[in-house]
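Box 3.1 A note on notation
Throughout this textbook, protein chains are presented in two layers. The first layer is the amino acid sequence; the second is a token string describing backbone geometry. Keep the layers aligned when reading.
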Amino acid sequence: MAVMPRRVVRKAITGVVVLLVGITAAALIWWSASGVDLDPWRSGPPPYPWASLVRQEQRWRSEGLARRVAHDYVPLDAISPELVLAVTVSEDARFLSHGAVDGGALRDAVRVWWAGGRLRGASTISQQLARVLFLSPQRTITRKLREVKLAWWLERELGKRRVLELYLNVVEFGPGVFGAEAAARRYFGVAAAHLDAGQAAALAAALPAPGLDNPAAASERWQWRRRRIEERARLAVELRRKLATLTAGEQTADPADPLR
């Protein structure tokens, strides 16, 4: 078996090192800016229609339906603590203990995708907010990477409290029903501040598939989720306390964020 000359080996190794350095530099440059102006999102109502709302309006127009979305912004302290807790335990129970991304869950999701499975799961509340505000619903690795970067920047620039406030105001709870206030009034005839534990669990149960599973449809899958969320919320005493502290004041991104 012929042995490659040392000169050729050194040249090959140098080429690989240069390639890796170039890839790393490009990744750092890409990561160094969010690509979105987040200043308008720091406080108050959404400054302009967000991606998921625009998609819903476009869908209705394409179907020839003259419908309008329901949305009313309210600050976090005007949303029932029961709903804050129910949404957190159902969508991202470790929201206050990890950074913008749950590294372990993300690695598992990518591993499944790499093995030929569907790219799914692992999205934190911050990642979901990034997707709802700025991204398409396509399940691709490119979109997932953009979602991860935007989630990191959202927490870095806005903090966890504002991320949670925005999420509860822009996420869809039913067909065209965006945000806690519109959902509370649509399904229960009360303000978001007055939702009880059962109503909160009912709304949180709609989040995975609001078009199909919501309090109006009351599907079997929705009913199962509602019971499960209600039980988890009842047991989440420590998380309730931490969320109450968060709601009362500002909190910045977790310095332990593995991607920070």
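The longest helix spans residues 141-170. Strands lie at 70-71, 172-174, 177-178.
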